């Protein structure tokens, strides 16, 4: 087991190297001259040339990449063209918001998905089963940004229950210790801030959770249906155990193994979806940072955020793989 | 003479079904798949004859009529420039189907090429191709498409290219896996023995046998491509206004959530129904093409 984890961690190095090289090459070979972009349209050719020299843009591409790589390994992604602040600082400021959103979504998706999936399987072909499977089909077919807009129309515009955008109320200045607003407000026992944070989190988290909820519900239903037909479940029933114990103790436990993998894989998917959700709800996370950076042509910021998101994605998928082999001892990796 | 002699194949024809007929028979039994197919055919019809079906010109504004809700004249209302939303949604089928189908076709061809070369030759070439695919898979696909749009620039052609590129690894993986499992079969060895070259073996003998999972995957791939097109359009990176693309319509309707929510309601329903139809039809194809895969 330990060897497998070590092996996977080692394999991470070439993948992340490849990811960095890929992003670097794509952005450097195909985008406009960054020196010209930094100086604006009034710059003379000499000024641009001088800045190119200063930034080392006239060096051979492999030297530029080497410099980029060594800087990156020290946590230095250069400076944003828009704000002049270090890219890493911009990203770290925004990352907690995205993590908070993704965690809230995965909690909603797992809780709702597993519950719906279990009930659907136990009451197969009932009205509940049909309705929830139609809901799941809609969940995988609906663009999440559209669901976000519909939620805003219903809960913010029409009913006026929940706020439209942002992470907290305007005027409310919550203490920022970890930058996770929910944790911060709990730490400082600032209940107003907690309520505000939760109210702002609700709609984006639900929108982002929709696709994953549907996938998890489908997966739970189909594995439960398979497990319920197994001999040991018949044995458990034959022993006279109550239906509840049979379903939750005997069936669900075994059915959950593949579901856990799906939940993990969805964590990775949420990172892609976060870009859209954050744009809809003006959520100040790394996804909306990336979109703003792209719109402004701020390529160091784009480069940094893309690499950070991809790295998170790869690491999450790795953790899921390892967890999977831990949860299901029948699976051996060599 | 020929009247009295029946070939063995002819004798069996009345009883046995050809694989295609057998497939169609199974597909026909799947009601959801058939309803989806009918819906998809309707979309194709709308796309082909948008000019005749749409009640208004999708690009002609009419400011006095702007932001009006659904009415008898404008069944789905009008947008911020007074354009008829129903007509724009009908024209939008052209863009969504075109992007979906062309992007998936490009990705499929590239995936077939890389996947079969990797699987057939193995060794170093396999390693090189598949490690590159692994790197592309290390990105959430929408993120990669967004990055490509930044590099390529906005617009419908570039959206097609970006969506095609990010879907290549998936097809390449499927093809490679199937080629690996097929290439040791006796009929491939037989083809080699009678002197077929590598190209002939790959295209004539191997690829036709790995088509089933590819067709299923492509149908589902179209729905993913339609969602990605809409997402790019919504973010302002894909198809640009004034083009009547569903995601772009959602993006520009976003500013009118408070006074004209119908601007974002109907294009979203169009996307959802279309994606749903491709998903259901893809599931139906999978069950009909390969009963062993049935869930």
Provide the gyration radius of chain A in Å: 24 Å
Top CATH class of chain B: Mainly Alpha
The CATH topology of the largest domain in chain A, please? Answer: MetI-like fold
Q: Please tally the helical runs of chain B, counting DSSP H or I stretches of 4 or more residues.
A: 13
Cα-atom radius of gyration of chain B: 23 Å
Query: From N to C, what is the helix and strand string of chain B?
Result: HHHHHHHHHHHHH
**What is the H/E order of chain A?**
HHHHHHHHHHHHH
CATH superfamily of the largest domain in chain A: MetI-like
**Range of strand content of chain B:** under 5%
Beta percentage of chain A is under 5%
Oligomeric status: heterodimer
For the biggest sheet of chain B, the summary is: none
Name the structural class of chain B. Answer: mainly alpha
**Class by SSE composition of chain A:** mainly alpha
Q: Give the second-level CATH assignment, the architecture of chain B.
A: Orthogonal Bundle
Number of domains of chain A: 2
Tell me, rounded to a whole number, the average pLDDT of chain A.
85
CATH homology-level superfamily of chain B: MetI-like
Could you tell me how far the N terminus lies from the C terminus of chain A, measured between alpha carbons in angstroms? Answer: 9 Å
Helix content of chain B: over 70%
Shape of chain A: globular
Descriptive report:
- The complex is a heterodimer of chains A (334) and B (295).
- With 334 residues, chain A is an all-alpha fold.
- Chain A folds into 2 domains: 2-73, no CATH class; 90-327, MetI-like fold, CATH 1.10.3720.10.
- Chain A is built from 13 helices and no strands.
- The N and C termini of chain A lie close together (9 Å).
- Chain B has one domain: MetI-like (MetI-like fold, Orthogonal Bundle), CATH 1.10.3720.
- Chain B is elongated, with a radius of gyration of 23 Å.
- At the A-B interface, helix 1, helix 6, helix 7, helix 11 and helix 12 of A face helix 6, helix 7, helix 11 and helix 13 of B.
